[in-house]
Design a protein that fits this description.
Blueprint: H1 8-16, E1 24-28, E2 41-42, E3 52-53, E4 57-60, E5 76-84, E6 98-102, E7 114-117, E8 121-124, E9 128-131, E10 141-142, E11 153-155, H2 163-171, E12 176-180, E13 184-190, E14 194-195, E15 206-207, H3 210-220, E16 224-231, H4 235-245, E17 251-255, H5 266-272, E18 276-280, E19 284-285, E20 291-295, E21 298-303, H6 307-325, E22 335-340, E23 351-361, E24 364-369, H7 378-381, E25 386-390, E26 402-407
The structure holds adenosine monophosphate and magnesium ion.
């Protein structure tokens, strides 16, 4: 029966056939964190823009310091002709026998070709300095353009903007940046039994954990997200809420109401609002009832209501779409091979992604399934940093054998044992 359903791989491929091209936009630098550059960025100046001192000390001609060589008895004695602070310009150059007092970051004056650190000098009043070490040409001076020259490419298209890139963009005067736009994502939960987290559930009710977790996931993945609340299991109310959202968001995500029950009305409400279904149900556990299609230019996901099904289908199906729309590569979560250290889950005709905890050890990765009670158990799932993949129909890896693991933690740091287990 499940064999006739779409595999996860095919579902991902079908989704990819319906994606619009990523959309470029311009944003203020301060709003660009986590987005991907569309444009090539070149430096508009040499960096540093002028030869600058790396030390507080004295700008000198290196040749004038030769007499100082390890000889405090006969140091080079120079006349101090100027004082240069960072942000000010030299008032005069340095001639033979002269020095200028200079601070870190200040421009090195004409004629000087080195800086002697203040610790290697002795002042005789304001006007005379004794130099206690011999310095080579260039000592303690950062030459103009050492880091980049005007016109060179400092960031290429496709570069993800992290704090260091923000620094680079600021340094080259980019106050507005051309990036791929963050997708606008709407979240609906459905279910007559679902109440807001702040409310104490009455008999037969359950708190809405899906919306909060999904908002957090989309935010983490750098989408812009709007929580549009909970819809009751009532077609007309669903339809009017959907009418307002379809076409206004790049991605609309609903949870619940996509299974076979009498109150699973999401598919019908969507179709009544012009939804083009691409698939409904895939050969996946947890997450079999997942629904995907398009409506009025929005990509629409109907995810099953159980919180772990939401997490798994989000990671496997939704997140790659958001990353694609933001110009990220790769779009999929990394997979690692790890030695299975717990008993293997039984293989079934569906592909399984079991909440697991992976750790990097000297000999490679190891993985254990976490203790959980199925697709409703978001508490067990919270201890996972990965999903153990069991192929459809098996074989399931035996304990001690190599297993395929999808890492759902943000960075490798999650693999270095820093996560609470
Ligand atoms: P459904 O897919 O609508 O049949 O829901 C499957 C299970 O998930 C049911 O036990 C629901 O009560 C539960 N569920 C549905 N929506 C939510 C939600 N927003 N937060 C937490 N649990 C939910
Ligand atoms: Mg429901």
């Amino acid at each position: 029966m499940s064999d006739s359903l779409l595999s996860v791989t095919d579902a991902v491929r079908r989704i990819s056939e319906h994606l619009p091209p990523p959309r470029a936009t311009s944003v203020p630098l301060a709003e660009s964190l986590g987005l991907v550059l569309v444009e090539e960025v070149r430096s508009d100046l040499d960096m540093p823009p002028f030869a600058k001192s790396m030390m507080d000390g004295f700008a000198v001609r290196a040749a004038d310091t030769v007499r100082a060589a390890d000889n405090a008895d006969r140091p080079a004695t120079l006349k101090v002709v100027d004082t240069i602070h960072a942000g000010s310009l030299p008032k005069r150059g340095v001639a033979a026998g002269q020095a200028s007092r200079i601070m870190t970051g200040a421009p090195v004056p004409a004629g000087a070709d080195a800086v002697v650190a203040v610790e290697k000098t002795e002042s005789e009043g304001r006007d005379v300095v004794r130099i206690l070490e011999t310095v080579a040409v260039g000592k303690n001076v950062v030459p103009q353009g050492q880091d980049v020259w005007e016109g060179v490419t400092v960031l290429s298209p496709g570069r993800r903007i992290r704090p260091p890139e923000i620094g680079v963009l600021a340094a080259v005067g980019k106050s507005v940046v051309r990036v791929y736009d963050a997708p606008r994502v709407a979240i609906f939960s459905t279910g007559d039994e679902v109440v807001p987290p702040a409310r104490e559930p009455g008999p037969g009710q359950i708190r809405n954990s899906n919306s909060s977790a999904l908002v957090a996931r989309v935010t983490r993945d750098r989408g812009t997200v709007e929580d549009l609340g909970v819809l009751p299991d009532e077609t007309d109310l669903m339809r009017s809420a959907l009418r307002a959202a379809l076409g206004s968001f790049d991605v609309v995500i609903l949870t619940g109401g996509v299974s076979m029950g009498e109150k699973d009305l999401v598919g019908g409400a969507l179709v009544a609002e012009g939804f083009h279904e691409v698939f409904h149900k895939i050969r996946l556990k947890p997450g079999k009832p997942a629904l995907f299609g398009t409506a009025k230019g929005s990509l629409v996901f109907g995810l099953p209501g159980n919180p772990v099904s939401v997490a798994v289908t989000y990671e496997l199906l939704v997140r790659p779409v958001l990353r694609y729309l933001m110009g990220y590569a790769p779009v999929h979560r990394p997979r690692v091979t790890a030695t299975l250290e717990s008993d293997p889950p039984k293989a079934i005709p569906r592909e399984q992604f079991i909440p697991a905890h992976v750790v990097e050890r000297p000999g490679g990765f190891t993985v254990e399934t976490v203790s959980w009670h199925g697709s409703g158990d978001l508490f067990g799932f919270a201890a996972a940093n990965s999903l153990l993949r069991i192929p459809a129909g098996g074989p399931s890896p035996a304990k001690g054998e190599a297993a395929s693991v999808v890492v759902i933690e943000e960075s490798l740091s999650g693999l270095l044992g820093r996560l609470p287990k």
